[in-house]
Amino acid sequence: MHIPDGYLGPDTFIAFWIIMIPIWYYAGQKLTIELKSRQVPLLALSAAFSFVIMMFNIPTPWGSSGHAVGGGIIAIIIGPWASIIAISVTLVLQALIFGDGGVTTIATNCFNMGVVIPFVAYYTYRLISRNSEITAPTRVIAATIAGWISLTIASFFAGFELGIQPILEHTTNAYMPYSLSATVPAMVLEHALIFSILEALITAIIFAHIQRTDTSVFYGEKSKEERNKMMRKSTI
Asked: Span 10-219: which CATH code?
């Protein structure tokens, strides 16, 4: 999922820098407004968790490798906007220190893993769970599906970005030479069948654990005390 330097032409990676700069700015503004004081440590923990989980690259029979991201469960816990910051920090550190992903493609990778995954995961989770109780099994199912579909869609974006290089950069063979018919299936199939399943399992396990301990940690959810106060007010 990490796109290295040299695989995307300037038409593509410059466009994503232009897209991501205002997104980072707005995410930072939202972070100061939405993030509760008790969730601030979760932001750092989320970045650390994503950093560690993305370091475990699993090779595939097709000559490539992949990994889980953890973006789905991070979005469910601290919200999609805060997830952008957490995952972006992780990707920048990986690119600059470990060479995992390119420097020119930082914005592209941040869009795929830091924007697409959190927003697809969070709103898929909300759509499926709807108004069910936070402790209901439906919530675990919703989180699991959200984890799978978000990483799969992000892999489609990565495959698409790689596959359009022969069209955009047709005057040179310096960048990705394979077309969409090769890059999209290669990215989507290996993620849908392997890495998205791993992402779904990780999301389900962490969600189920938090569901049993402190549901107020979840983004947009009220604590038990807050819910009881609201119930008492409604009965007065």
From this structure: 1.10.1760.20
